[in-house]
Amino acid sequence: MDPKIYVKLIFDDESFTRSRLYFWVIGCLNEFLVSIEDNTKQWKLFREARVTPLLKPLPKSRDVPQNPDSSTPYHRSEIQRLQSLDQSAEGIRENLEILRSRFKNQLETVKALRDGLFNASALIESRAATKLGENVKLLTYVSIFYLPLAFCAALWAIPNINQGSTRDPLIVTAIIVGFATYVIVFNLENIAGLSGRIYHNWRANLVKVMQEDSSQEWKTLGQRFEEFRPNNDRKRPSEWRIVLYQMRMLMRKHKG
């Protein structure tokens, strides 16, 4: 098995050729398995009801004279022919069982290829989305590069820009604002993480105090902030209520 050729089975084209092929093969194999199982089941039922009783020797009766040419009410030649047909039918049934086992193995193989195709397609789409996100990120950085210059130009949108008293402060301000902007942008993830940790610690302490408040309204509101509500009808309160409670505490301390 050539790995370079085999791995191509998990990649599809724009027309979804392999996906449609796998879908068709799985449908055919399922129909084959159902047909084989139904035929073998019907044969077993027919054999137990019709063939097996005829092949069993009948008990001899003194009242019924026995035909010397037959061991049962049927002739020996008919019994032998029935036994031969029964053996042939059993051989066909065994072949069908073997074929059924092969179809099952092939079905599992096709399902594995189909799952691999779906996983590979999802991986390719994920990489494409990641690449698109990186491109958008680069475009954002390019636009941010001109943001300080546009900001300073808007502030200094006045005449006499060629004079030193106007030009020099513009240059200094553009450099300072640009440097500060670039530092913030390139460390935005760290700054956001630090700000998030500070906010969550402050929020957790304030919610704990809110739950111990003497007012039942604020106590209930604090409990709602700690609850997980998957139902859209019971949404969590707005985070601005925490800021409002902080202002309320400051006002109470000021009055006290």
Task: Explain the overall architecture.
The protein has 7 helices and no strands. It is elongated. It has 2 domains: 3-144; 147-255, no CATH class. The protein has 256 residues and is mainly alpha-helical. The model is unreliable at 58-72 and 228-233 (pLDDT under 50). The protein has helices spanning 3-6, 17-55, 76-155, 164-186, 188-211, 216-226, 240-255. One of its GO terms (cellular component) is membrane. Residues 82-113 form a coiled coil. Residues 67-76 have a biased composition (Polar residues).
N- to C-terminal distance: 83 Å
How many distinct beta strands? Answer: 0
In DSSP terms (H or I, runs of 4 or more residues), the helix count works out at 7
If you average the pLDDT, what whole number results?
A: 79
Rg for CA atoms: 42 Å
Major sheet attributes: none
Classification by helices and strands = mainly alpha
Tally of separate domains: 2
Region (Disordered): 57-76
Coiled coil: 82-113
GO molecular function: metal ion transmembrane transporter activity
Keywords: Coiled coil, Membrane, Transmembrane, Transmembrane helix
